[in-house]
Amino acid sequence: MSADYYQRGFGLKEEIQPHLEADYHSRIVETLRGAGHRLVAGDLTFLLAREFGFCYGVERAVEYAYETRRQFPDRRIFLTGEIIHNPHVNRRLREMGIEFLREADGGGPGLDAVRPGDVVILPAFGVTVQEMASLRERGSVLVDTTCGSVLNVWKNVDRFSASGYTAIIHGKYAHEETRATASRTTRHPGGRYLVVRNLEEAGVVCDYLRGTVERAAFLARFAAACSPGFDPDADLQRIGLANQTTMLSSESLAIQEMIRGVLTERHGADALPDRFRAFDTICSATQDRQDAVIDLLREKPDRMIVIGGYNSSNTTHLAALAARAVPTFHIEDASCIEADGAIRHRPYGAKEETRVAEWLPAGAVMVGLTAGASTPNNKIGEVVAAVARLRGIAVEGATAG
After folding, report:
1. Distance between CA 111 and CA 80 in Å, rounded?
2. Domains along the chain with CATH numbers
3. pLDDT digits (tens, 9 = 90+) for 152-205
4. Quick check: is 95 catalytic?
5. Which of 63, 177, 201, 382 is catalytic?
6. Cα angle vertex 138, ends 135, 143, to 5°?
């Protein structure tokens, strides 16, 4: 820790804890936990995944933001962007007088607004190498909440780039975390990166290496998702695979096997150790929440509700998992459950909400629940209460099932 860089908070956790509980605690969620994650309310049974909601990295980032406001009551405080992908948490920070340099829609004053002595909070996703250098040059006080799992990915990408491997990153090229991760390659001469979003895009890379995709088509497909001057003929000779920490684990593993397979085809198994490197960099919290959804689905719920920001990658992947087995509704909060019985949700892969009437069947219904790692408990509890109200039930009177 230095006078202008803080990575471990300010030792004010006890002072800010009452404010965190007031803003994010839920008595309903605590009741669900105490009832073995199963609660009966009239003819509704709620099943809550064993792992859900705020992870350690998110809790830490939010705590540090609250501590920062308390530590610097008279300073201008900025966030480089959303601290996590949850609209309610970000709105609360704005109410505390923390300004955002970059909004979700790309607007905002940008780094030029920062003056010497201003406090800048770096979000859980991290920032790019270039952004960090600019903030240091401006003489700002930095509070770094970058998640440890993200830092672990950066270490691997640094090793890839320092050894002459191109980093192929399974992620969303415009996502803050992936942008920050890709920027690590610029720290090394000749460092290169390529971002693939899914199995389809990984397949394009494999087909190029097999000679069935033309160079122009490849470069057009990945124009926004690769290093400047990317040369697929030279830069796909040696590959190090990494991923955005919140991607679907099974998809990351499948991409790993695809890349490993095509390099084996081209160069032979004996050459593979010098051609390919891969590490499991899906964060444990992401994996735990995905595993918990799989476990919950074994109970065969009639409907599944996934709660969290629509721009939250880990939340959308929970919805994708659940949707394979049961009608699933990804909602941002309880306002999506309308009093007339309809629900507004965003199906996996869609860009807009869809409104569905009569989504909750009559009679006895088992409703599965989970929430992304950036979703606070109070938003989960509000959803449970809103669903119960559709049946005229006060969920506070629920019992263990």
Report:
1. 8
2. 10-55+286-400 (3.40.1010.20), 57-147 (3.40.50.11270), 150-278 (3.40.1010.20)
3. 999 999 999 999 999 999 999 999 999 999 999 999 999 999 999 999 999 999
4. no
5. 177
6. 45
